[in-house]
Amino acid sequence: MTASRDPALEAWRINARVSAFLVENLPDAIWASGLPRSPRRTIRSIAAHLHNCRLMWMRSLGAGPGVRVPAAVDPRTAARHDVVTALDASGRAILSMLEAGQENGGEFPGVSSTFVWGAIPRQVALFVGYALSHEAHHRGQLLVMSRELGHRLPAKVVGGLWQWSSRLKESRPKRAAGT
Prior knowledge:
- The chain is mainly α.
- The chain has one domain (3-171): Four Helix Bundle (Hemerythrin (Met), subunit A).
- The chain is built from 6 helices and 4 strands; from the N terminus they run H-E-E-H-H-E-E-H-H-H.
- The strands form 2 sheets. The protein has a two-stranded antiparallel sheet with strand order 1-2. A two-stranded antiparallel sheet has the order 3-4.
- The two termini are 20 Å apart.
- 31% of the residues are buried.
- The mean pLDDT is 87.
């Protein structure tokens, strides 16, 4: 099995694309909105949090293989396009980190303890489960917040979160003609 078809890596590809897909489809009208009882926690800040957490993971687990950590986004000011672009970049960087771990027998190279930062597993398959759970939690928050703010997302968007084969196809690099 090639590293690019490894089930753990494919799961990450799908997850990363699902997160970007949701952020792409959030209504402009609520991008800067927070809930009335929690105004500092905005749609924008949660979307930025997805990317910025990935950076923390890369600093902890990607240092050994030398994964280049993309720039953070400001959770108070980032435009949606910037967050989507950042999610694409961090999704690819995490994939590089995962590939390095799989090439190292399933363990992230250069990480000495079983768990970093107390909870983040250093074993690739366990980390993928951890990361997917984290991002799914925040995608759920974004869906609920959208609804609470009076913007129920269209069925094609909500259903699109579960169209894993479509999101996987979107996540793969495009082949050049004739290859």
